[in-house]
Predict the 3D structure of the following.
Amino acid sequence: MSRASTQRYKRPALLSGSRPPTVKAKHAALSSKATRNLIRSHHRLLKARAQAVQAGDDILAGKIDAQIRGNGGLKSYQLASKLGQSSDRGGDSSRVLVDWMAPRLLPLENTPYKLRVLEIGALSTKNACSMNKCLEVTRIDLNSQEPGILKQDFMERPLPNDEGDRFHIISLSLVLNYVPDAAGRGDMLKRCVSFMTKASPSGSSLAITPSLFFVLPVACVTNSRYLTESRLQDIMSSMGFVLAKSKQTSKLIFQLWDHAGDYEPKPFRKETLNPGKSRNNFAIVVK
Ligand SMILES: C[S@@+](CC[C@H](N)C(=O)[O-])C[C@H]1O[C@@H](n2cnc3c(N)ncnc32)[C@H](O)[C@@H]1O
């Protein structure tokens, strides 16, 4: 046996080991598992709360509110979501949007024109879409974390008065699955259509196809009793959307839907499409 293989391998010292003990990370790091648990538990509580409200049980809804607060509320949930966006945990999902839009943004380069983006559920003013020079991003969230993010519920955002209030791109990244009830998700998708426009940025003559970008946990589409890729396709096409891009990772599904068809929404109810004990209950209901 060679001398090298008998000698115990000594791991090279990490640079962090030479840091003085007073230099601490900005946030106490949550493990990926703790982050996931916090996010799941917040979703579970929101769903239970929505059911209690629907059943008219104010006392139970109040108790669940207290539990949500006890877990750190929306603020802790957002912190956990932000950690999920860090590059070591899958990264910023808006990078996919920017990559997909790149060919369409080429004609805007070196012009003063920009496409208007509405980012619903925005956690940062410095993600890839915000940093792109061809995009002008309006960011909203139920709880704003930075001055560049407007605290607003999209479902209560005043409907547009004119083209300037509408958008060329709407981003719903991990937002639809935040909505606690199935009919609320259908309403959110329908509402997006009212905020989209084909009109070119004022002064330009660019032909525009408005798009909806969304990201969902992959299990919402691949392992639900009530939603399949084909049902999602039917719902979206009834609203005038045509699938332009799609990509799946082990955790997430990313899709870009062009609004290029006719808006003829029809009802979709919650029905078992994919039975099985190990499935989840994610659904989109359109009324
Ligand atoms: C999981 S975070 C997603 C953040 C980010 N877009 C991402 O991809 O990581 C979901 C965010 O959506 C926001 N949200 C959910 N429903 C909303 C609504 N109706 N209007 C505005 N923001 C909403 C929540 O407040 C939360 O911050």
About this structure: Residues 32-54 form the longest helix (23 residues).
